[in-house]
Design goal:
The complex is a heterodimer of chains A (about 350) and B (about 250).
Chain A: H1 2-10, H2 27-32, H3 37-43, E1 65-67, H4 76-84, E2 89-91, E3 108-111, E4 114-117, H5 128-132, E5 140-144, H6 149-157, E6 164-168, H7 179-182, H8 185-196, E7 202-206, H9 213-222, E8 227-230, E9 234-236, E10 239-240, E11 245-246, E12 253-256, H10 261-272, E13 279-282, H11 288-297, E14 299-304, H12 314-322
Parallel strand pairs in A: 1-2, 1-14, 2-5, 5-6, 6-7, 7-8, 8-13, 13-14
Antiparallel strand pairs in A: 3-4, 4-12, 9-12, 10-11
Helix pairs in contact in A: 6-8, 8-9, 10-11, 11-12
Chain B: E1 6-17, E2 20-25, E3 36-41, E4 45-53, E5 56-60, H1 64-70, E6 77-84, E7 94-99, H2 103-111, E8 117-122, H3 131-137, E9 139-144, E10 151-152, H4 155-159, E11 169-173, H5 176-188, E12 195-198, E13 214-215, E14 220-221, E15 228-230
Parallel strand pairs in B: 7-8, 7-11, 8-9, 9-10, 11-12
Antiparallel strand pairs in B: 1-2, 1-6, 2-5, 3-4, 3-6, 4-5, 12-15, 13-14
Classes of the chains: A alpha/beta (about 350), B alpha/beta (about 250).
Chain lengths: ~350, ~250
């Protein structure tokens, strides 16, 4: 137990600057201690990586773990809280050309293996400028959406201080927005081009609800995207058998959480073979091993959303396991599963 | 774990006041006083609501969803998700102060025998809720804005007549300006941390994910970190100043 506790302490996120060597004791050393601790030591042989040494996709992230769009991202205060709780960067709620109240409820229901939601892109539109102005200089990526490339450009013009933009071309449950236009490679390319004129990194978030995600990713790359974010939620629905009707106010919604992790991994794997820009993995990440797996598929960093449902401390919890001062550079494993 | 809404059948609808009804249903929920549920009116919307008992909610007609709820009768079905949030944590000598339909969560606390003194306020006599029941389980003091029953004035007027410092826990629910008046009085005496305030904000997910109920300045989620907050956590920030609507715009 003594070894276990001391190791836990060593890798506690808040004590990172005091981290020392993570060298495992030799087998002989292990024998000196309670055999029960061997299990713990074995778990700690998981690959550990270093914190980012340079910008990722044009953004100076504090670690490889970003808060995904749509999670606790409507107010400046909640974004700031998530940064203080260990997120290496935060993506805001998607901001659009006009304020939207969102779909009627139920707008989100936890189900086995994930969450199903149809929020309906609620957002304060231009009022969001004052929400995030106190966060200037922090690793905040502003998620934006519009119904046309011109609307994307208009919304982007409101945030001259943004470090980067993430284009929501992938929300599966908003008429005329998100995936409704994000399945069209030409529109994806045009939206990317117009936002790119603001000379900031542009990340394009893709929908998995297409026959071939590679074509959409390629279109974003051709439009000048600095990174792809894969994936948004998977179109889904549930029916309340007791009420004999769809449970979501919008009938259809998007599935997120552990259930879609394999879909995200496959999408990232496909895209990594297709494009030459970084990929930010998103979809069901809830453990440090999930982060490694997405990196091996081709992700340079990951976004985490639904796992916040289980713990608001998920970022520091994952970081504690993922990082070590003498870990390997993340670049060594990004895409390494392409054998 | 799946948390699909539980579909319940309404068994009784009670008129509490001209604008408040209690809906009793056929399922029991294991809740702690101050916790809330999401009430789904199929085809209309889903709204946060306090339990008034293990098998009932007490609702004031304030918008489209509550209006639709008011049209329902015994035999109709609604969905319930929850209970959610943290609830009250009352210890020692307990004072409860309620205004209007804010009495609901505090009524459940008193029904558990956890309240010594209860100050109940309403605009007028006909809008007093649960007064008869509360008189049986606590030392009940009533205030009405128009003086039609009890003390003529606000609940804070009665509060000023009590030795507030003799109470270990002061549980509060009601209009935000009423709660502000109470918080100010506790702050003057340096006992704001003894106050437990049940807050209300626009909610969508109710499980701490979407962020629509986050409060300034520290981003606390009313649905998951609350809805009950001690007074020291809300003395600065948006409490009693503003809130955000469905789109996230400040109102």
């Amino acid at each position: 137990m003594f070894i276990q506790e001391s190791i836990m302490h060593l890798f506690h996120g808040e004590d990172r600057d005091r981290q020392k060597s993570r060298l495992s004791p030799s087998p002989d050393d292990r024998e000196l201690h309670n055999p029960k601790t061997r299990i713990v030591l074995t778990e700690n042989t998981m690959i550990q990586i270093q914190l980012p040494q340079k910008e990722i996709a044009g953004v100076p992230l504090r670690n490889h773990l970003l808060l995904a769009a749509g999670i606790l991202g409507t107010t400046g205060a909640s974004l700031k809280r998530m940064l203080s709780l260990g997120a290496g960067g935060v993506v805001t709620k998607s901001i659009g050309p006009v304020p939207i109240p969102g779909h009627h409820g139920p707008a989100l229901v936890p189900i086995d293996g994930g969450l199903i939601n149809a929020m309906g892109l609620p957002n304060p539109s231009k009022d969001f400028i004052t929400e995030i102005s106190p966060l200037a200089g922090e690793p905040v990526i502003v998620s934006i959406f519009g119904g046309t490339p011109q609307e994307f450009g208009e919304v982007a013009s409101w945030f001259p201080d943004a470090l980067a933009f993430e284009l929501n071309l992938s929300c599966p449950h908003a008429e005329g927005y998100g995936a409704a236009i994000g399945v069209n490679p030409r529109i994806v390319r045009e939206c990317t081009e117009i936002v790119k004129t603001y000379n900031k990194p542009v990340w394009v978030k893709l929908t998995p609800n297409v026959t071939d995600i590679k074509g959409i990713g390629k279109a974003a790359e051709e439009g000048g995207a600095d990174a792809l974010v894969a994936i948004n939620t998977v179109k889904a629905m549930r029916i309340s058998t007791g009420a004999r009707r769809p449970v979501l106010g919008n009938t259809f919604g998007g599935l997120s959480g552990k259930a879609i992790f394999p879909i995200a991994v496959r999408s990232i794997y496909d895209l990594y073979d297709t494009v030459n820009i970084p990929i930010i993995g998103c979809g069901g990440v809830s453990t440090a091993d999930n982060v490694l797996e997405m990196m091996m598929a081709g992700a340079s960093a990951v976004e985490i959303g639904s796992a916040v449902y289980d713990s608001i401390n998920v970022f520091s919890e994952i970081a504690r396991e993922l990082y070590a001062e003498d870990g390997i550079p993340a670049e060594e494993i990004v895409g390494c599963a392409h054998v | 774990m799946s948390e699909m809404p539980k579909i319940v059948t309404i068994t009784i609808v009670l008129d509490e006041t001209p604008t408040v009804k209690t809906f009793v249903f056929d399922e029991l929920f294991n809740f702690k006083p101050g916790q809330f549920c999401m009430v789904w009116v199929p085809g209309v919307d889903e709204i946060p609501m306090a339990f008034s008992a293990a098998n009932s909610i007490t609702v004031m007609k304030v918008g489209d969803a509550t209006e639709a709820l008011f049209a329902l009768k015994a035999g109709d079905k609604i969905g319930i998700r929850g209970p959610f949030g943290n609830g009250f944590s009352a210890s020692g000598k307990v004072l409860a102060i309620a205004g209007g339909v804010g009495v609901t969560p505090l009524f459940t606390l008193a029904a558990n025998g956890e309240v010594d003194t209860f100050i109940l306020g309403a605009r007028t006599k006909t809008e007093l809720i649960f007064a008869d029941e509360l008189a049986k389980v606590s030392d009940l003091k009533i205030a009405t804005d128009d003086g039609s029953f009890g003390f003529h004035g606000f609940v804070t007027g009665i509060m000023d007549q009590l030795d507030i410092e003799s109470y270990d826990t002061i549980c509060v629910c009601g209009p935000e300006m009423m709660m502000k008046g109470i918080l100010d009085r506790l702050t003057v005496k340096g006992i704001e941390a003894r106050g437990q305030f049940s807050l209300q904000r626009y909610m969508k997910c109710a499980v701490g994910i979407c962020g629509s109920c986050c409060m300034d300045n520290d981003g606390k989620r009313v649905c998951r970190d609350g809805p009950v907050f001690t007074g020291d956590l809300i003395t600065s920030g948006e409490f009693a100043h503003y809130h955000r609507g469905a789109s996230g715009r400040k109102e």
